[in-house]
Amino acid sequence: MKKYGNDYRQRGKKFEYTGKWYGSSLSVKELKRHALNNTGLMAAALVIYFASLMLNNEGSRIFWILLPYMVVVFPVSYGIMGGASLFLFCRQQEGKADHSQVVIPEEHIGHMTCAQYEKGVRRPVRCSIAITVLGLFTSVANLIFLLKDFENLIFTRELLFEAAAVLILVLGSVSTAQNWQIKAKFTNFE
């Protein structure tokens, strides 16, 4: 990531990280479990998302319902990538990943670099908040559409679409709560 290029200094053939460090009070096993849990929640939201798009209901043809629902795919995808990033950090800490060319000072072994923290902790927080907001907007907009044009709809399809939007809202809310708890357990080291 170009944004963090100034955080590295070259020493011979190796590089030394000189930027901010982030440490957690959680063990690597707990972080790994959280990464898998978060990735699972996001993957479930993605499956529900694609399944609900196959319904072909009337509400999914309305612009102000469909637009926020279509945008949900981006934070869900980035949330999955954030969970995978945290999982890879945990594997690196367990010694199961390749060793990079970056030299880590002794006092910061087990800590995350700024880039790792941004991708593995902050990205899932932002993505889960976006999923919650977009899911809330979609479910309320579809509910208004259901109540406004109740007689002319195939009600089962509309209810399934509403249930999918509410499920995505719930998964986003659960993920937001869990990600905030994890983020609160990190400390910044300059």
Describe the structure.
Helices cover 64% and strands 11% of the residues. The protein is mainly alpha-helical. The protein has one domain. The strands form two sheets. The chain has a three-stranded mixed β-sheet with strand order 1-2-4, with no helix packed on it. The chain has a three-stranded antiparallel β-sheet with strand order 5-3-6. It is elongated.
Largest sheet: 3 strands, mixed
Instruction: Identify the overall geometry.
Output: elongated
The largest beta-sheet arranges its strands as 1-2-4
**Class based on secondary structure composition and strand pairing:** mainly alpha
Percent helix: 55-70%
Cα-atom radius of gyration: 21 Å
- What is the terminal-to-terminal distance? 20 Å
What do the pLDDT scores average to? 87
Transmembrane segments: 35-56, 62-89, 127-147, 159-177
Keywords: Membrane, Transmembrane, Transmembrane helix
Protein name: DUF3278 domain-containing protein
Summarize the structure.
Keywords: Membrane, Transmembrane, Transmembrane helix. This protein has about 190 residues and is mainly α. It is built from 5 helices and 6 strands.
Describe how the helices and strands are arranged.
Layout: E1 8-11, E2 14-17, E3 21-24, H1 28-53, H2 63-71, H3 73-94, E4 102-103, E5 112-113, H4 114-148, H5 155-183, E6 186-189
Parallel strand pairs: 2-4
Antiparallel strand pairs: 1-2, 3-5, 3-6
Helix pairs in contact: 1-3, 1-5, 2-4, 3-4, 4-5
Protein name: DUF3278 domain-containing protein
Keywords: Membrane, Transmembrane, Transmembrane helix
Organism: Blautia faecis
